[in-house]
Design a protein that fits this description.
Elements (H helix, E strand, L loop, with lengths): L7 E5 L8 H8 L8 E7 L16 H10 L2 E7 L5 E8 L1
Parallel strand pairs: 1-2
Antiparallel strand pairs: 2-4, 3-4
């Protein structure tokens, strides 16, 4: 049996486009082997000098809530980006 590579999935500025995120991220778990990660970079839900309108943004807290409900845990967070959050999740 072939071993699945350690996958890192990057979702960049598009998480609000994913319909039924809970179901989607539960299904994605099948593509991840233990230790696989999902990184989410997206715009803070507040006015910023650049980026999409507020109606196209998800609050950081909502993303963490939804990912936790889908079976992931937040394992890393960076504040390197001034207008976006950068979150890394692993399967619980």
């Amino acid at each position: 049996m072939r071993e699945r590579p350690n996958v890192v999935i990057l979702i960049l500025d598009t998480i609000h486009h994913i319909d039924d995120r809970l179901d989607y991220f539960q299904r994605v778990q099948g593509a991840l082997k233990p230790g696989g990660r999902i990184a989410v970079i997206d715009w803070h839900k507040r006015p910023t000098p650049e980026g999409p309108g507020l109606e196209h943004r998800l609050a950081r807290e909502r993303v963490v809530e939804e990912m936790t409900a889908a079976g992931y845990r937040l394992v890393e967070e960076s504040d390197i980006l001034p207008h976006q959050y950068f979150l890394v999740f692993r399967v619980r």
